[in-house]
Amino acid sequence: MATIDYHWQQFSFGKKIARFSVYLFFITGFLFSLRSVEVIPEFLYDAPEQIMDLLSRMWPIDYAFYPLTVHEAIIETLNIATLGTLVTLIFAIPLALMNASNVVSSPLIHWISRFFLVSSRSVNSLVWALLFVAMFGPGMLAGVLAIAFRSIGFVGKLLGEALEEVNMGSVEALRATGAPWGAVMLKGYCPQVMPAFFSIVLFRWDINVRESAVLGLVGAGGIGVVLNDSMNLFQWQEVAMSLLAIFTVVVLAEILVINIRNRLI
């Protein structure tokens, strides 16, 4: 009787070809991108020396600069992040409801909401800031609107997904009793979605604190304005103070968000 020799292999020939094609595509893309960057070797070799020179100019940090300018700018940055996040909710919540298939059944409404959500996410906050600075002039208003319009897509998409994941049992029970749409939302959807809602909003506020710190580079208010002015004047010790303040605020915001989430969720 002839014996059958079984040979086990993890991937078939077709899968090996597919994997090789993917690897080849990424390597080719990386090499092509590396050529298009046009790195100047002299600058690259000189980078460690330039970094050490810049750090030596930043030290010692000018702590006296904090109460003069940095403190007020940091408070303005936090205000921009907070107001921007609150303004986001005005637009993000209706779009999330329109995007949830178990809340609104119209495909046209879904496409309209997705258009606005994708449009918001596809434009960087600095680009939004440039646009609103051109419309309303430099200052805090442009920063608030830039943060808000950038955050609509993020909050709306995640909140819409949370709405679609609710247990429909209680919702259908309320509808069966003839409860109006508002009562169904408040008693059926909201209790299940609120933990995710708080988590999304807090997470987005944390991100907005970081993004609002750089909006001043294009004139949209906050600590970025102070940082940009110090860099233009080559006041590197003041730059170090601004960077230290930004780092401290970001870390404290992260700690605050974690503590609030642990208490609310």
Shape: globular
Order of helices and strands: HHHHHHHHHH
Oligomer: single chain
| CATH evolutionary superfamily | MetI-like
Number of strands: 0
Ends distance = 68 Å
Helical fraction: over 70%
Helix-strand category:
mainly alpha
CATH architecture annotation: Orthogonal Bundle
Strand content: under 5%
User: How many DSSP H or I helices?
Assistant: 10
* Low confidence ranges: none
CATH-defined fold name: MetI-like fold
Backbone CA Rg: 26 Å
- Major sheet summary line: none
- The top-level CATH class is Mainly Alpha
Q: Mean pLDDT, nearest integer? A: 81
**How many discrete structural domains?**
1
Summarize the helices and strands and which ones pair or pack:
Blueprint: H1 13-37, H2 41-58, H3 65-99, H4 107-122, H5 125-136, H6 140-164, H7 168-176, H8 181-212, H9 223-232, H10 236-264
Helix pairs in contact: 3-4, 3-6, 3-8, 3-9, 3-10, 4-6, 5-6, 6-8, 7-8, 8-10, 9-10
